[in-house]
Amino acid sequence: MQLQKEKMKTETIVLATAILFTGLMAGIFFTWSNAVKPGIGKLSDLEYLRALQSMNRVILNNTFRIIFIGSILAVAIVPVFYFNLYPKNIFWLFITAFIIYWVGAFGVTIFGNIPLNEILDKTSLETFSLEELKSLRTSIEVKWNNLNLIRTISSVLTFVLLIFSYTLMNR
């Protein structure tokens, strides 16, 4: 009986961690989509690129890494800890949340936003002409914004699915 209580407690901690971390990531992505990018979008090409370059460098800190990697791991292990619910619908909600998050948040970040960030990071903006700055901004801005919108929607959907799953389990 004690082992069963500990397992249930571990499952709950894993799910709560996934909910917390995906919620935090959804908030970060939403804030970038809703406030940061529209705000810096009003800047000149050089100012915009400098601001984005600076923010992309600053966000790579330990707190962000813990939340980003923690959300990826937590969402992946939730179905493992709740495999005993297979083949019930709630198990499939966990699998759906996992797929949405891994493709729409993690995959898009790794294969979409990070490569754009790396292009910008390696660029010495001060050596660029006004035309080159405009061209660089054009090649990054819309793609980055669209990819971030995908990350925002995926994170919010995952967050909602995990909360919904938790409420279904506790009926």
Question: Can you give me a brief rundown of this structure?
Answer:
With 171 residues, the protein is mostly helical.
What is the total tally of β strands? 0
Q: Structural class given helices, strands, pairing?
A: mainly alpha
Whole-number mean pLDDT = 93
Strand content: under 5%
Instruction: Count helical runs.
Output: 5
Uncertain runs are none
Largest sheet: none
First-to-last CA distance = 22 Å
Q: Write down the overall geometry.
A: elongated
> Approximately how much helix is present in the residues?
over 70%
Alpha carbon gyration radius: 19 Å
The helix-strand sequence is: HHHHH
Fold and architecture overview:
There is one protein chain. By secondary structure, the chain is mainly alpha-helical. It is built from five helices and no strands. The mean pLDDT is 93.
Essential attributes:
single chain; 171 residues; mainly alpha; 85% helix; elongated
Topology:
Elements: H1 2-40, H2 45-58, H3 62-81, H4 89-121, H5 130-169
